[in-house]
Structure to design on (153 residues):
């Protein structure tokens, strides 16, 4: 009677450990990629990094890594029109590319739409994002602000 319980507890502990290791590795990879982009921007400047990624997109307009980096550059620079277009493209490509982080893409797409006063687009994108990350302060803030601007209470 005690042996099956011990086996079940051991299996549960092993599975939880594996899940934590895998999720930690994914977070470290994402942080490393973000750090590389920030260092590149710091060394070369925003326009040089943007041009570099735009050149990659000339050869392959569906290059997810270049789109993601270019979107981050435009988003961080406050170039909402270009960021909106990049994140819409990433959203459209997401069904074929599972590596795309849909919570981040739809959050940033929605925030760019908010700043462009495209409140319907903002609401649609942010509703999708909040389903993926319901505890995201930024997503909930801009979703509420979009509803406020549309006077939907």
């Amino acid at each position: 009677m005690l042996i099956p319980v011990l086996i079940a507890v051991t299996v549960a502990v092993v599975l939880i450990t594996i899940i934590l290791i895998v999720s930690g590795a994914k977070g470290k990879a994402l942080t490393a990629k973000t750090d590389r982009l920030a260092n590149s921007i710091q060394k070369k400047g925003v326009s040089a990094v943007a041009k570099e990624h735009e050149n990659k997109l000339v050869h392959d307009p569906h290059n997810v890594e270049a789109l993601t980096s270019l979107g981050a550059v435009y988003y961080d620079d406050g170039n909402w029109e270009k960021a909106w277009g990049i994140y819409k493209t990433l959203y459209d490509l997401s069904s074929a590319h599972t590596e795309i982080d849909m919570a981040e893409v739809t959050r940033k797409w929605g925030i760019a739409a908010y700043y462009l006063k495209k409140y319907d687009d903002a609401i649609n994108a942010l509703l999708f994002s909040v389903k993926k990350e319901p505890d995201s302060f930024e997503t909930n803030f801009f979703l509420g602000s979009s509803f406020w601007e549309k006077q939907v209470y």
